[in-house]
Amino acid sequence: MKFYSHPDKLILTHLMEVNKISRAYCDKKYKKAEEILSFTHDFGKYTTFFQRYILSKDKTKNDLNSHGFISALFGVFIALDFYDDNAIPVFIYNCILHHHGSIKNVDMNLPKNFRSHRIDKPELREKVDIAYEQIEDMEKNKEFIKSDYKTIGYDKYFDEFISQKPIEKILNRLKKLQYKFEYYNESGEDYFISQMLYSSLIAADKISASNIELPEIKFANFNILNETKNKKFKNDSRNDMNLIRSQIFDEVQEQIKSVYENNKIFSITAPTGTGKTYCGFFAALKLKELLGEDRKIIYSLPFTSIINQNYSSIYSLFKNIPNFENESSEYIIKHHSLADIEYSSEHEDYTKIKAEMLIENWNSGIVITTFVQLLETLIGNKNRMLKKFNALYKSIIILDEVQAIDIKYLKLVEFILTAASKYLDCRIIMMTATKPLILSDAAELLSDNKKYFNMFNRTSIIPRLEPIKIENFIEEFYDNMEDKSYLIICNTIAQSLKIYKELKNSGRKVLYLSTNILPCHRKKRIDEVTKMLENNEKIILVSTQVVEAGVDFDFDVVIRDIAPIDSIIQAAGRCNRNGKKKGGNVFVYSMIDNSGSYYGTRVYGHTLIDISKGILYDKKCIEEREYFDLIGKYFIEVDKNKSHEVSEKFKESIIKMYFSDKDYSIDKFSLINENDNYVDVFFRINDEAEEIYNKLLKAISIKEIEAKSEKMLEIKNKVREYTLSIPLKYVDRVNDKNDIILNLPKSACEVYYDDMTGYKREEEEDFFVM
C-alpha cells in the first residue's frame, strides 16, 4: 500500500525532503532533534483514516484523520532514547503538535499527580483513545509502514511503538521533564532551542509540500561592491558634507577590524545625513569578510516607507556582478507587508505563491526588512513569522533608527538581541543619530562620534513652550512668515487638518500630507513636494509624524508641535538637511485644544512630553552641535521615569516560554498597536481603482485555493494603494456593508474624499493616526 502526505507526494518522500531541507536550516548542535522532528512530524498520516481524507474530494476533517497528537507522541518516544534528562523531548512534542498552527504553551494537560492509567481529563482522554484507535489501524498495514521507516533507519522504533502502545508512559515521562524544565529554566536558551527546531521544521515542511526547488543563496563580495560604490561617487563634489561622509565611512571600516574578535554587538552613532545606510551596510559586509564565513545580512528599518529607498541604494551596488539582474533575489530581497511578490532567479520562474514563500523564508544573502518582521520573529508564536526564525542563525543584523521603537519595549529589545547574539551567534549593528539607552555595552564603531556632531550646525531648535491654541498659533505664524519654505509637523490628524484649513488661503502654495490620504496619493504628494523644494519654491507643507523618517525633505524652516526630544531631532533632519543654507530654524510649540489639553500627550503620553518640556524649558536656542548632549539627557530622564514593567513581563514570558493564555504571553507582543475602532475600506475613486476592485472580486470568487492565492498576490499591492483605515463609526457611509469587502463607490468618494486632505472627518473629531 502507498501512503501519501499530500495528494501528489508519498509520506516517505516528504519526510526525507523535510529532513534534507531542515538539516540546512537548523543549528548543527540540534542535528538529532531536527532529524527526529523531520521523520516523525507526519507519522499520523500512516492511517487509512487520513489516506481517505487526503485522496478524496471530501475534505471534512475529523479526529481520526488528524495527525498532530499521535505524531508528537511517536516523536517523543524516539527522542526519549537520546534526550532522557533534558527538555528536548518536550520541545519535540510541542513543535509537532503545533506544526500546522501557531505554537502554544508546553502543556501535557495532565494533573500534577498523574500516574499511568489515570487520565481523567475528558479532553485528553478522548485524544488518547483516538491515538489508540489510530495505532490499531496502523497495525493492519504494519509491514508497509515499517518498510518506509526502515529506509530512514527508524523501523526499530516503529515496531516498539506499535507493539508497546506506550502512550501513558510517554505522557508521564514528558510531564516530569516539563516540571524540571519549568523549574530550572532561567536563561532564555530553551526558548531559542525550541524556536530554532520549530522554525526549521515548519519552513522545511511547507517547502516540501509546495514542491519548491530551493535556489542557491548568493553572498555579496565586499571588494566588488566597494569598487562599485567608489565609482558611483567619484564625480561627487568634494564638499564638506561628502568629506565628512567619507571620513566616517573609513573610520568605521578601520574600527571594526580592531574590535570584531571580542564583540558581537556594535553601534554606529552619527549625525543625520552622514551616509549611515552605506556606512552600516559596508560595516556588515566587512564583518562578514573578517569572520570568514557566509552570513546573511538582515538590514531592518522602522517603516515600510523607507525600505524601498534603502533597498534601491544597496541594489544599485550589484550592477557590475555578471548576470545579477536574472538572479537578483538570490543576492538581495526586500520583505515587508507592502513589497511586491517577486523572486528573480534563473533557477525557476517562480509563481507568486512560491515567490512569497521564498521571500517569507528570507531565502537570500541580504534581506531589507522592517522592525516588525525582525522583532515579531524573534519574539513571536505565529507560524508565518517563525518560518524565518532559523534564518537569523549566524546572521548580521543591522537596526537602523532604533530610537523609533516604543520606549516601553526598549529593554525587551535589548534582552532579545543580546540573547540572539549569544544563542544564535548573531552579530548586531545598531545605527542611530539619537542613540537610546539600550545595548550600552556595544562596541562603538565611530568612537569619537561627538566630534562629528560638533561639526554640524545646520539647524537650531528654538523652544516656544507656552501653551497656545491653534488660532493663536496661526496668527503668530502669519505675523512672522518670511519668504521661506515651511514644514509644520502636527501630532494628530485633526490638528493637522485644522491648521491646513486655516493656512490654505494664505496666498502661498500650501500642501498636506498624512495617513489620512490614500497611499497612491501620498506617494505623488511626496514627489510633488520634493520637486518643488528642489526648484526652491517657498511652499508650506502641513503634515504629521509621517515625514520624520525616510522622507528626505529639505525645508528652510520646520515647526514641530511638542514631542519627545528624539522626534524633535528627527524633525530637525527635514530642515537644511544638506547644509547648503545659512542655517535652519526648528521652532517647537506646545499646541493645546479648546479644553487646554496638549495634542502631544494624546500620542506620547504625559511622561515623555513633560520630560521634553523640562529639558527645553529654560533654553532659548539649541544649536545642532548640542543635540548629542541633549538626546543623552533626554534618555537618562526617560530611563528614570519610564516603567520597564511591560518589557520585564514579556521577558519573563520568553524565559518561561509562555506562548499563549497569559496577559503578557508571547502571542500578545506586537510593535504596532492595532486599533479595534478602525476598519479598512477600499476607495473606488477612479477607473483604475474600479478595475482593481473588479479583479479583487473575481479573485475572491475563485474556489481553488492555490489559484485564488495566486490572483490575490498579483493584485494585493494595488489594492492597498486604494485602501484607507477609517473610524468604525463611519462604516454607515460605506455603500453596501454586505459586500464581500468594505468599499466606497466613486459617487461616495466624491462626497467623503478630498484630493488634498484625504478622508473627510467631523470638524471637531480628533485622531492621532500618523
From TrEMBL:
Keywords: Antiviral defense, ATP-binding, Coiled coil, Helicase, Hydrolase, Metal-binding, Nuclease, Nucleotide-binding
PANTHER family per UniProt: CRISPR-ASSOCIATED ENDONUCLEASE_HELICASE CAS3 (PTHR47963:SF9), DEAD-BOX ATP-DEPENDENT RNA HELICASE 47, MITOCHONDRIAL (PTHR47963)
Domain HD Cas3-type: 4-207
EC number: 3.1.-.-, 3.6.4.-
Gene3D superfamilies: 1.10.3210.30, P-loop containing nucleotide triphosphate hydrolases
Enzyme class: hydrolase
Keyword Signal belongs to the record: no
Residue ranges of coiled coil: 121-148
GO terms under biological process: defense response to virus
Keyword Nucleotide-binding: yes
Record family assignment: In the N-terminal section; belongs to the CRISPR-associated nuclease Cas3-HD family. In the central section; belongs to the CRISPR-associated helicase Cas3 family.
CDD domains per the UniProt record, alphabetical: Cas3''_I, DEXHc_cas3
SMART domains listed in its UniProt record: DEXDc, HELICc
NCBIfam families on file: cas3_core, cas3_HD
Organism superkingdom: Bacteria
Gene Ontology molecular functions: ATP binding; hydrolase activity; metal ion binding; nuclease activity; RNA binding; RNA helicase activity
Xref: Pfam families: Cas3-like_C_2, DEAD
Native source organism of the sequence: Clostridium ragsdalei P11
Residue ranges annotated for the Helicase C-terminal domain, each copy included: 473-654
InterPro entries linked: Cas3-like_dom, CRISPR-assoc_Cas3_HD, CRISPR-assoc_Cas3_HD_sf, DEAD/DEAH_box_helicase_dom, DEAD_box_RNA_helicases, Helicase_ATP-bd, Helicase_C-like, Helicase_Cas3_CRISPR-ass_core
Protein name, entry field: CRISPR-associated nuclease/helicase Cas3
Helicase ATP-binding domain segment(s): 257-453
Native organism taxonomy: Bacteria, Bacillati, Bacillota, Clostridia, Eubacteriales
